[in-house]
Amino acid sequence: MSELTYRPWREGDDLALNELWGDPETYQSGQFRAAFAPNSSGRRDGGPNDGGPDDGGTTVPDGSWRRCIVAEDQGIPVAAAVVYETRLHPQRLWAYLEVARDHRRAGVGATLLTMLRREAERAPSGVRALRTKVEPETPGAAFAQEAGLRQLQRSRIVRVQPGALRLPVFGDGSEAAATAQVQDLATGSVELTDVVGRYYTDVHQWDPTGALPPGTVQRLFLDDLSGAHGAVVLRERPESAFGGTVAPSRKGRIQAFAVSYSQGATDEPTDVFLGHEPALPPGQAVAAVRDLLALIAHQYPVVLELDDSMVALSAVVEPILAASAALVLGAETLVVGD
């Protein structure tokens, strides 16, 4: 291997590199390859698209600050690296690099990472820390470990089989009692938007979000462009302020929610974002999540994204994974960083 040269990304590099690299080695590689593009100096007006619940904000917003470097061997691109800002999780910069197989273990990745860190020193946000996504026991995971990046989070995609959990009984067991607590809710609901935004913020304290105004929560999780097409909520049992002999005049507060996302094929399990009111005590949060998951997965399978930081959901799903009533789809995703 001759001495490599390094330069900024140019149009057409993606074609040359994809031909050399072949198919992405992991799902994360396929996502991050889309981030390779010419350098950008900052955000334009109008607000970026920071991605949705399935990508953790890895999507590069239009006009966001980005630096992309290409390594060439005798004029042929063989490796690339990118670092960029997003608004959804602003306390670290996303970074990714990929090196052709026949150029690995030769210091190319380490050189590119050093160059990315130098570029990061000039990020407009003042943020210097990096993060990326890898799969366990892959070359990317080994490189991240050698580079000193620590695990920040583990995420799994879980398919919950029909009937994995026993159906709950609400109140006196009547249809009226169930209807009072389990309700379909429009995805444009202000009440739903509020609890979804606060839940996402709560379970991402390990990588804090920026401000999540209602419009942002709607765009990321609940409007048509996010793929959301329905929501079910579990409410507290309604009670009257005037005693048990007087009918309640208000609905109970939301305890848990499940937002479903459209699928290309009707026979595929439904993707669901399942969460709870963050202020619930731990035991109540687990009970609310269990009851709602039992309902939505009673007859048909559902697919959930399960982060270790989702404590209540983990408490419900881990036992049914152990009992083979749910299964992990594909490989785990690790978020690693400074």
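The record above closes out task 2.4. Task 2.5 opens with a second protein, given below.
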Amino acid sequence: MPIVKCSVANCEYWSEGNNCTADMIMVEVDSHAHADFKEEFAGEYGHDSQHKDQANDSSQTCCHTFKPRKTEKK
């Protein structure tokens, strides 16, 4: 598995050194950014990986693997 860097520190899969610890990464084009996939993608296989889209550069893509980190109640 390649090393995936991520600076979104409030993600469940964020780890020290800005590393992503998700089992699987789902990257989409922005036109699908608001699609309702219902589930996070790390370790899940309920996403649509059958369609093929094109992006001209990274600014037209987004990561759907993000899952908000659960905060501990004090």
